[in-house]
Amino acid sequence: MASKTETAKAKAIADQLRQHLFIGVEATTAQENAVKANSSGQPPRRERLLNVVSVMERDSSKSSGPAKPRLLCITVKRNRKLRLHKVKMNNKMAEISKTWNIDDIKAIEFKEPTRFSLHLNHKYDFTATDAVLVEAFVQMLAGFCNKYAVRPPRYINTVSGAASSTQSGSTGTIRPKTAYGRAAGQRPGLPHGAPLMPGFDLSKPPPEMTGAEATIRPRTRGRGQNRAPNDQNALMRRMTKYVADHGGDVSELVPMGVPPPEEPAGDELDGDDMGDDADDVEEMLLDEAFMLSADELVNEFGWRANVDAAQLESRLLSELHKLESDNVRDMLEADKQVPKLINELDQAIGNLDSMDRMLKFYGMELESMDDDVRKIQMENESLKIEEANQQLLLRELDTILKTITLSEKELQVLRNESLETTEGIERVERVAASLKRMLGASNSSELGGMEARSEKMKKYEFYSANFSTRVYDYLKVMFQFKIDGSGGDKARSVRKGIQLIVGPEQVHKIMIKYAGLTLWLKEAKPSADKELQALYLQCMNQLYTSQAQKLVDSCRPVFFRYRHDANSGMPNPVAEFAFAATPGSHASGSAGPSGRRLSLDGLGGAAHQALASAKKGDTGSMGSPGTAIDMQPAEAFMIALDNLVNCVIAEQNFISDLFHYVPPAHTRAARQSPSSRKGSVDSKDESGESANMMLGENVTFYNWVTYKMRPINKWERPRPKLDSKDIVSQTVHFGTVKEVKSMLDLLFGNLVTQVDTLVEMGTRFDPSQAVGMLVPVAKFLELCKGSDQGFLINVLERCKDRLEATFQKYVSEQARSIEATKFVTKKRVGALPFARVFPKFIAHIESLVGDTGYSARAIADSAYSRISRLIFDTLETLLREADRNAQRHADDKDAQKEQLNAHVLLLENLFVLVNGLKAYKSRGCKPYFVPTLESYLDHAHTIQRKVTRAYLKDVLQRPIGKLIAFFDTVERCLAAKKDPLATSNLGKSPLKKVIQAHSASSMRENIKQLSKRVDKHFINEPRLRPVIWQAITDDMLSNYQRVVTLLARAYKSTNQSLDFTQSDLKRWLSER
């Protein structure tokens, strides 16, 4: 039994819902408005609350989430419609969140005493705290569903007997009405698995009824008929107990002001009356819900409270008599019509018997006709199958005939058609493809036993062998003829006096049209295909060898332009930009007639241009004068290497196309390129899509002809290494097949030697050309990066390594030459070689390298950095050693003289170096190199300023040295806040002696002697004398202004001053 607390709580919730939400079907408009005014939630509903239970809801479609508290309410409306509401409490206010009709319930599942599920639009799981309240709620809901639902729901498990139902795993539908009670269990006589509400045995009829009446119990009295008072009271007591047990409001069942009847003892309600009274209780609940109020009923009869009740009673009695008289009259009339109705029913029964006999006869006729129709349909299906088999057989026979048949006219095409024209080759290829298709079908097991086919195949094999022999003989002669014909001088091309290799290009254009025939040989006669490849390699090797030799010979005059004979008395042109003599400078040979020495400021390869312009008429074996001799060896090497590289790239791609060594990935990439797609659209190639499907494997001759495939062409560009997914691959060094690599080794076996020859000749007399040769090598390596040109990449990498080593060796020799420079300070020797050469060295290397992003640029910058750092370190070391030696031997005149000579030497070298760099910057320096050049100039200017200060200190020691020393002491004394006049060596008398020693006449004479001395110092570099004299002038004027200022500051009281003015000093300095 439910605890008193839970029961009280349920009644409190029901009372609250009846006051604010479900106010009853008999509520008036005034009552509804009053509830609306007192409630801020949902408007009240005119429905009667029959039962309510408090549950926790969890949506079964969600695996997780908190349970939500809800109220499940069963209500009835005025139109007798039962509804189920889900109510949530929001701020102590009831609010309906979901409403269902009784017909929306699809299943009721009872899981545990406090858990059950309702299957509505989806499954809802509910859990309560009290098992008794849950059981009562489910009982009432199940009873209403069985009685009033159009289609009762399914019931899964029973309320109290869940264990037995769960074990069987069956579900059932509760058809009988539910009864009030607590006992439950499976009753005998019912189907297994049919759930029953506890305490109600359907198989046990009431005592006063028979077994038939227990099965179907008719209602003997209508709803609302009169009952005896005792029966009314007993029924009212049962109804009151039923409503109280189900959480209903008992007060609503009792008229206002009338106390409810007392509940009899428990033994007064025996078990036999429960089954019969349960229906009456439920009917009375619904009847009371749908009864009109007393006011409405009496208003229909026009009765008012101020009128005597007797009037109403007489009115009602008259109505009752009228109804009884009508019933009597209807019964009498019905007795008269019964015999007539019986006769008509007998006639109808006879007619129905006749119709039944006719329908049976028609049924037998239809069954007979159905058998005939089924037999006809089976024969028709058999005929259709036979016709389809015959059609398939005809198609197969037609295919076989086409497979083994080739007309004599077509066979004559293989024998007699010309192979000179493109049209003739296409006709031959089409017939050969048909022949190949027939020969390819010889392995078919279905046709192998046909005698006619065997004879045909032998004939076709004979024609195939003859055609292969014809193709091989023709292509062998054609290869030799075309290759030999392309080797004449008329086909040669000259670029700046260098003879290029152009014969193979003409051969490629002519021979590519035979690519289909070579594919035929590759499949039909592989041995002939290999022999044809060997013949092609042999002929092309001879062509490449002869033309490559002419290419190298045409480059020889350009490479030998720097050849110098030491015994000829001519200057070595390489020495203009080299710090050391090159190994080839003493090689024997002719030299140019020029005896002109280039000027100090000749920059940016000017030595080359002067030498080239001097060699007028010396053209060697080239064509017009000055065509190739004006080039740098690096430029000639670039032209030659460009020609050789293009030949290797084109030859590898051509061999792959002609002899069909193209990987399928390359063929797919070529067909998917924009130009190929455009061409296929223009030609309206309907088989293009099918051709693409065939590219997953190697191309066969039949596919080549059928899908109109053509070579990739575009031989001048390297082809990328593609894997099976058409992605560039970097895992394999050689991106092509082994056969092509072997063919390239045989074809270009002498290429490595020829490239080495070009490198050796180009760097023999001028190793600095190596850095210029690195530019095209790095360019072509970048071009071949990621391609299948493995053979060419190996050659270029080998060449690159050799050139880098040659240039690094050359730079090391120049550095050793600078380090070996001997400085003679006992006499003035003028500018050193490296000061003159360094600007020309930079200009020369820049003319070779230029603004490139390849490795040559980094190598050249590294060489500049190394040599410039060595030059500047050498000059600074000379200055430091001269000053240190002079300080160590302060009384030695020779040491002082050597210091002065070192200063003069440094000034001359720095002047030459700075002027050379400035000249190159203003004339030939490219914008990208300006920052580097300015860094060198800044470094040189720093050293130049330091040396100039040291030189001025030396040369001004004689004319104004004592004056400067005296006033330097005065300045230090003033800095120490002392009075110079109070110092013995700075007094008035020492001051007077110093001023007298530097009179106007003596100063003028000293300036003249200083001018002669400066001219003598820089006799080797006259352009430097004005610069040095201007520095002397500025320094003497500055010292004069400093002396005048110190005299006015420290010796104003002595009235001592110099006897010459600043204007006099300027005039004397400008008179030199």
Description:
By secondary structure, the protein is mainly α. The strands form 2 sheets. Strands 4-3-2-1-7-6-5-8 form an 8-stranded mixed β-sheet. Residues 159-232, 252-278, 288-293, 583-628, 668-696 and 724-736 have low confidence and may be disordered. The protein has 34 helices and 10 strands. The longest helix has 95 residues, at 309-403. α23 runs parallel beside α25 and α25 (790-819) packs parallel to α27. Helices cover 59% and strands 6% of the residues.
Layout of strands and helices, then pairs:
Blueprint (H helix, E strand, L loop, with lengths): L3 H17 L8 H10 L9 E12 L8 E9 L5 E9 L2 E9 L5 E6 L2 E5 L3 E5 L3 H18 L5 E3 L5 H7 L42 H5 L13 H17 L25 H20 L3 H7 L8 H95 L4 H9 L5 H19 L10 H35 L7 E3 L2 E3 L2 H9 L3 H10 L1 H34 L46 H9 L18 H26 L5 H8 L2 H10 L4 H6 L7 H6 L31 H10 L3 H14 L4 H16 L5 H30 L13 H17 L5 H34 L4 H31 L6 H26 L1 H19 L12 H10 L2 H18 L7 H26 L11 H9 L2
Parallel strand pairs: 5-8
Antiparallel strand pairs: 1-2, 1-7, 2-3, 3-4, 5-6, 6-7, 9-10
State the helicity in percent bands: 55-70%
Major sheet strand order: 4-3-2-1-7-6-5-8
Give the termini distance in whole angstroms: 139 Å
Oligomer kind: single chain
Rg from alpha-carbon coordinates: 63 Å
Please tally the helical runs, counting DSSP H or I stretches of 4 or more residues. Answer: 34
The shape is flat
Average pLDDT reading: 74
Which class of secondary structure composition applies to the elements? mainly alpha
Poorly predicted regions are: 159-232, 252-278, 288-293, 583-628, 668-696, 724-736
Can you count the beta strands? 10
The major pleated sheet works out as: 8 strands, mixed
What percentage of amino acids are in beta strands?
5-15%
